[in-house]
Amino acid sequence: FTTEVFDQYSRSDQSLILAMIEAYINGVSTRNITKIVEALAGKSVSKSTISEVMKNIDPDIQKWSSRPITSHQYRYVFVDAMHIKVRENNKIVSKGVYIAMGVNELKRREIIGFKISNQESEQAWSEFFEDLRMRGLTTPELIISDAHSGLIKSIKSQFIDSTWQRCTFHLLKNIIERFPKKNSQEARTLLKSIFQAPTYQHALESKNEFVTKYENNPKYSEALNILDQGFEDATQFYRFPAQHHKNIRTTNSIENINMQLRKREKVIKTFPNLDSAFRLIGALLMDIQENLDNAKRPFIP
Predict the structure, then answer these.
(1) CB of 55 within 8 A of CB of 121?
(2) Residues β-bridged to residue 96
(3) CA–CA gap between residue 190 and residue 207 (Å, rounded)
(4) What is the 3-state secondary structure (H, E, C) of 18-80?
(5) Between 150 and which of 11, 122, 216, 225 could a Cys-Cys bridge form, CB atoms 3.0 to 4.6 Å apart?
(6) Is residue 143 a contact partner of residue 133, using CB atoms and an 8 Å limit?
(7) Which residues are within 8 A (CB) of 212 and not within 5 positions of it... i.e. 6 or more apart?
(8) Is residue 87 within 8 Å of 68, Cβ to Cβ?
(9) Could you tell me which residues come within 8 angstroms of residue 10 by beta carbon, excluding any fewer than 6 positions away?
(10) Confidence grade of residue 5 (pLDDT, cut at 50, 70, 90)
(11) DSSP character for 215?
């Protein structure tokens, strides 16, 4: 975070404030932060005071979240959403946290946008994508996501020339859930091998062999229908370099970011307001981005 927002404080107070912010971002509850401050500085601070201190980072988060994204081209863009609880108008409501991560020409990952809005819907996704476009996002070659209906409609309307890749992990999960509870291990193994094939043609042949093997077993009929409906959307990654396949066929990389957010969010459980949610999630994403920037290896070969 920039130092300008702390200039009004003495050097010792700046150090204390930065320590409080660091603790907050790393999962220490406000209650425990008050204890830490008292132990370190002999000062007693309330939870409301800590909340006020945290507002010091708002300008940096706002600047980062609204920055132009015109300096790079993003061949691949991953999008995902998670849900949080926020207190609003004296009641607890669910909000969607929308996140987009791009892979630039340097083969590095960059969190290019996040937004907190209402529950996941086509309109909410469209507003999120419109914001990304206004900030400079051009048409990605491939957009990777799960199969939420509102999200798919929004991708197809906002990025007409982009290819959509359905997350193979989620598709496999949906199919396996329809397998018989017993004696289906062989089917699971064969199913997973379909999307690990080296080429589209090999994947198609494996898929056809799988269908032939189980099409006369009524216990697999629903699973086969899901496979048939989702196969083409889940094999678009084969259009791209083979060395990229492993990393672009699922949303695992962006869901890993969500897991990091969720780990911290569980400490809070319910955000007191929308501003506090934006503050913490934004700060965490900035911290995650710093780690991505410092990664020794690029995301894709």
Answers:
(1) no
(2) 83, 117
(3) 9
(4) HHHHHHHHCCCCHHHHHHHHHHHHCCCCCHHHHHHHHHHHHHHHHHHHCCCCCCCCEEEEEEE
(5) 122
(6) no
(7) none
(8) no
(9) none
(10) very low
(11) T
**What is the mean pLDDT of the segment spanning 251-265?**
95
CB 244 within 8 A of CB 237: yes
> CA 144 from chain center: how many Å?
11
- C-alpha angle 156/159/161, rounded to 5°? 95
The upper half-sphere exposure of residue 197, i.e. CA atoms within 13 Å in the direction of its Cβ, equals: 17
DSSP state of 119: S
**3-class DSSP assignment, residue 285:** helix
Amino acid sitting at position 244: H
Q: What is the pTM assigned to this prediction? A: 0.90
- Local structure of residue 135 (DSSP, 8 states): T
The predicted pLDDT at position 32 comes to: 84
Q: Give the integer Cα–Cα distance in Å for 134 and 137.
A: 7
